[in-house]
């Protein structure tokens, strides 16, 4: 008898411990390399959008009038072959002539002449151009019609080029990413709160209440989305909050249907019947039993909803119904780039690259979460 009990205790100790569903999901997700790569990519894009604009050296609204539509390059601007034309343009604005010009070690030495005495305040055009620093007068003729000045050449880099008005495209793409990701996450959160509550309540009530609530969804599905946005623009000024309201007002419909289907499948289970027998209210059953058991499909649907919201916002901004200046988003930048496609194709390629990478990463992560949260898959070893 003692040996039998001892053997049973040893077998129980040697038996592997049952792991929770969340632990199994984490283990499956960590073994899914594409999903992990997608997660790392999303984190990198988010961090770049948050901290990147402070590291590029350019303010997003800063305009460089002498560096319009510059191609993407690692080289610093102005380049040696463009310094002389830039100086001549600035001298023309100052109504002066360039008699002599020499550049050495990033410093330019100029001899400026004019039929009339030169006003030294006109030299402020040099630092105002953003290409050169403040000018220092080395020599001045007795009649004041000739000046020898020295100024340093600025070193400006535009890794993704500049747009049609001379703004750094990399900085604008990173700032636009903040808006696009904010809209995607905020609208998805609203869709989760409204859709989960509506769908769970509809499925739990059942009967006539469920039928009426589903017909309301059908009516909302029938409303054309773009027409709905145009109606909002008639009464309200287009801004970021209007885009959030418009997108969130329609994206919760699919979430409600998903949660309702899951609730209908769960409410006939024994644990739900036991909760009803114990006298728990409908709200308590939803919060304690129904919603926690639908988290798997909800998380997957939310992950796949974020890229759809971002794409929808980009579509609205492309039509001019979304985010308005001075704010910007990837959709706004893509719309601007499409208008300058022939002369500056990088204006379309840069924001489209950020958008495509983010959408692919979100979809791959959503597929990985769907596999990780699927209870029908075998337990990983």
UniProtKB/TrEMBL annotation:
Pfam families, per database record: BPD_transp_1 (PF00528), OppC_N (PF12911)
Q: What is its main location?
A: membrane
UniProt domain ABC transmembrane type-1: residue ranges? 177-366
Stretches assigned to the Cyclic nucleotide-binding domain: 101-146
- A single BP term in Gene Ontology: peptide transport
Enumerate the subcellular locations listed in this protein's record, separating them with semicolons. Answer: Cell inner membrane; Cell membrane
Bilayer topology = Multi-pass membrane protein
Q: Which InterPro entries match?
A: BP-dependent_transpt_permease (IPR050366), cNMP-bd_dom (IPR000595), MetI-like (IPR000515), MetI-like_sf (IPR035906), OppC_N (IPR025966)
Keyword Iron tagged = no
One term under GO cellular component: plasma membrane
Q: Which domain of life is it from?
A: Bacteria
Q: Which UniProt keywords apply?
A: Cell inner membrane, Cell membrane, Membrane, Peptide transport, Protein transport, Transmembrane, Transmembrane helix, Transport
The transmembrane residues are 179-201, 213-235, 241-259, 297-323, 344-365
For this chain, the family text in UniProt reads:
Belongs to the binding-protein-dependent transport system permease family. OppBC subfamily.
Q: What is this protein called?
A: Oligopeptide transport system permease protein OppC
Species of the source: Methylobacterium gnaphalii
